Amino acid sequence: MLALIRGSLNSTVPNLPQISYKEWEGLYWLSRKHGVVTIINDAIEMLPAEQQPQGDIAISWTLSAERTRFHFNHQAEVLNSITAKADEEGLRWILIKGMSLARLYPVPSSRACGDIDICFPNNYEKGNVLLGNPNATMDGKHAEIVIDGVSIENHLHFLDDHFISQLRAERFIWKSIRTLPDDGFLPPMANMVYLLMHTVCHLTAKYKLPLRNILDWGMFLKANINNLNPAECHKVMRKIGMVDSFNILTCISGEFIGTDLSSFVIGDIRQDDVTRLRDLILTKKYLEPVPKNLSLPHYIKARYLRNRERRWLYRYLPSTRIERVLGIIIRIFKRD
Predict the structure, then answer these.
(1) With left for phi above 0 and alpha for psi between -120 and 50, is residue 251 left, alpha or beta?
(2) pLDDT, tens digit, for every residue of 208-221?
(3) How far apart are CA 318 and CA 64, in angstroms?
(4) Model-level pTM?
(5) Planar angle of CA 283, 249, 245, nearest 5 degrees
């Protein structure tokens, strides 16, 4: 799977052994789970005919890729109508996450996007009006509005505010866009902070990290290798408290996309943690929640053992030890 991804992202023919029908079938379902079917299909199309999948599984690859591209193109049409209307009304906007990152891929429409994430800085309410739902209810940091079958998330905030590091990152982003960019994207340094926190928060929520988010991080750094100063990146990461996360995600993403990103890595990396995180991402080994029907003493013990098993992971999460302890105590009594 990684060989095909690297081939697709670097526009090079993958060097693969002969793959059986059953192996192609397993690879297809694994790729769907990771949201990279179309990216891999781009690499498959570069393979010699005798190496490509055959039969029903070949049809499945093609149909899935076409669905992704059709959906992306439809999203792009909806986005164009939104931004054209915003520009006409003089309402500044910033595109974030998936649709803003697709432009960094060799074939933008191959980067599957679930929805469109947009922010109208300091004009959240006007954004809802423009999107056709002035009474939209905010869920967390954004409101969700559907336009022509496409989900639009209008962000009041960029990040959640559960931890101090998230609050620091949010403040840094808003400070960076006091003068709004003309291109509709976050400035590189602010985008770096946002993408890192967004990526790690996937890990925080369910102790999982989608492969697609790792590819996004790598493609972003690759595209900005001449725009971002590694020393400045680490200076900002130290202020936020996310240096270890920055280093390990950069190391893994460089490996996954087949690009040398080592210039961004400053300081030591725990290689055993690299192996653990790589396995967590690729094998989708999610840790099961503690059953809620246990007696309180057994529940507390089970929580302790599970968190002890995850202790290597905590140094990469956007929370301090005190925040984690308080969170664990609250969840124990809530049985969350």
Answers:
(1) alpha
(2) 677 899 999 999 99
(3) 35
(4) 0.90
(5) 115
Q: How far is CA 53 from the centre of its chain?
A: 29
Residues 257 and 321 occupy one common structural domain: no
Q: What are 250-306's pLDDT values in tens digits?
A: 999 999 999 999 999 998 899 999 998 898 888 765 556 677 788 888 888 887 787
On whether residue 189 sits in a domain, the answer given is: yes
Q: How far apart are CA 27 and CA 71, in angstroms?
A: 23
Instruction: Fill in the DSSP letter of residue 51.
Output: G
How many Cα atoms are found within 13 Å in the side-chain-facing hemisphere of 237? Answer: 27
Q: Give CA–CA dist 166/169, Å, rounded.
A: 5
Give the 3-state secondary structure of residue 43.
helix
Q: What SS3 class is residue 335?
A: coil
The whole-angstrom separation of Cα 213 and Cα 183 is 23
Q: Is 62 exposed, middle or buried (0-12, 13-18, 19+ CB in 10 A)?
A: middle
Q: Is 257 in the same domain as 319?
A: no
CA dihedral 229, 6, 276, 218 (to 10 degrees): 20
Residues 120 and 125: their CA atoms lie apart, in Å, by 9
pLDDT class for 26, splitting at 50, 70, 90?
A: very high
Which tokens go with 313?
């992971």
Within a domain: 284:
yes
Helix 296-309 × helix 321-334 angle, to 10°? 150
Query: Containing domain of residue 185, as a range?
Result: 160-289
Inter-axis angle of helices 37-44 and 21-34, nearest 10: 140
